[in-house]
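dumping this here before i forget
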Amino acid sequence: MSLAYELIAAIFPIFAAILVGAALKRFLITGNDIWAGIDRLTYYLLLPALLMVEIYRADFSTGNAGRAVAVTLGATLFLSAVLLILRPWITRNTPLFTSIFQGAVRYNSYVLLAVADALYGSEGLALAIVFIAVMVIATNMLGVVVLNALSGGQRNIRRVLIGLAKNPIILAAGAGAILNITNIHVPVPVENTAALFKTAALPLSLLSVGAGLRFVMDRQAMGAIALSTTLKLAILPAITLVALQFAGISGMVLAMGVLYAGMPCAGNAYILARQLNGDPDAMASIITLETLLSAFSIAVIAAVLSIH
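structure:
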């Protein structure tokens, strides 16, 4: 079986599920309340159960996961600094710039979990969660700080930061890490119950990603949308790959760092753009385009990593 076929077989179901979610939202389950309920179920129960169980079960005693996460975060901060320095030449429209910025540096953890599971199984899933546990905090904070500094969203900053501190994904990752580090034994019936919930996390989260896509392109901002998408799906993965190789990282740990860097922008960037006076229309367009094109870019990244 060829490498290309194997990659397509692994990645196709992920993006097929996203498109099914978009179709369900448009033609069958059109009620916003229903999808809001699915989002809450996934966000507050299913994904936290997945993170807690996988981190609790994971063996982090070997490998260079911590160093790889630090290097991946460093690559993101480097691109962030470049964007801020070049801001006067990119656009003088501040709300639009904040959407370019978020689109270039934010990650969709839902898609990463599905890709890691498809390409590397349970070991890859556990490693992806290590990245998520750190990066979800760092990149959310980065988005909040930049939007607050540039778009004058001070009146909402406290509410956003409190919400971040109560983030169930962050709390679940922390709980799983504590259980793992302290070797606290979770009773098997309790562990199996949590594992039962986690099996529904990936398919429902992908359907939810699809339902959240907005298939309306902001034509006045197409240049900015194209720039942000190129930075996120091509430039940042390349920077991260070079940085990880320079740091001596290899194997699946290197692959996970590069794959994380190539994930499309998270859907909650749209909510942040609305709350902190960004450009939500451009943000929605960036998220949609990146999510759709990432089906191809992730396959290319996976192929390059497999060859090397």
